[in-house]
Amino acid sequence: xxxxxxxxxxxxxxxxxxxxxxxxxxxxxxxxxxxxxxxxxxxxxxxxxxxxxxxxxxxxxxxxxxxxxxxxxxxxxxxxxxxxxxxxxxxxxxxxxxxxxxxxxxxxxxxxxxxxxxxxxxxxxxxxxxxxxxxxxxxxxxxxxxxxxxxxxxxxxxxxxxxxxxxxxxxxxxxxxxxxxxxxxxxxxxxxxxxxxxxxxxxxxxxxxxxxxxxxxxxxxxxxxxxxxxxxxxxxxxxxxxxxxxxxxxxxxxxxxxxxxxxxxxxxxxxxxxxxxxxxxxxxxxxxxxxxxxxxxxxxxxxxxxxxxxxxxxxxxxxxxxxxxxxxxxxxxxxxx
Length: 337
Prior knowledge:
With about 325 residues, the protein is an alpha+beta fold. It has helices spanning about 10-20, 30-40, 45-55, 55-70, 110-120, 135-140, 145-155, 195-210, 225-250, 255-260, 310-320, and strands spanning about 70-75, 85-95, 125-130, 135, 175-185, 225, 260-270, 275-280, 295, 300, 325-330. β7 and β8 form a beta hairpin. α2 (about 30-40) packs across α4 (about 55-70). About 35% of the residues are buried.
């Protein structure tokens, strides 16, 4: 007799909120509470599994709520007063090329707090706390949604601020992230835009503190939840590693085989929000039923707000730079597409 699996209460809550959203009567606050409960239990992978299985509209909704739930928490206070929030944010900044190791990327937390308060036009009474070093994409790649949520929840409970990374890792791309927290914010979100004058003044103030930054204010956009910065960092690191591994296997082939090998770059269309990417090496002289010479493991990337062709284009550029010119991009569509 087969056993019947009964989902745990939290999983049932997740199923309920997804079904409620499908029928247009979902409660966003209740959904955030449920997602935060998953993160409190360090069940991030369960949420990502669900995210990969949803349709595009539902996946985009859950993706944004997950970022908010990880990085924005209510500060306990008088229930009769308007709530205030602790928000974990990130500002993407351009780095100079050819950085020297070991990295510095140090900033003055007090001066930077003043810069952010002034040029993001934050409400009075909002306390700004700043990570004392800019974080690279390879450093953010090592974090998790659980770690982000744990960090901002501790600050919301008035605990002492801890650094988010013990050491910096060399960047994969010329990007650094200014991580900061808003404590006592009247809103759970972040400013949606930065005026040109503020953008220039903000970057000028940061460049004065950290010479490793590039003076390119046009590259600066409005701050986002730190979860989005982590997703971008993980995308960059994972795709670069996939390219490195593919090129390394390709280079190890015998010259005659390498000359005729075609690299296939596969992107699983899925829901266009969270999906796998992989590569294989195909020898056209082998029988069709032989299959690829080598296939990489799947690399999962977050592609919300990015074109479906983006992972293939990024991998193509890396392969070309390494001298590999025989490749094909394959977008593998889901059956319903």
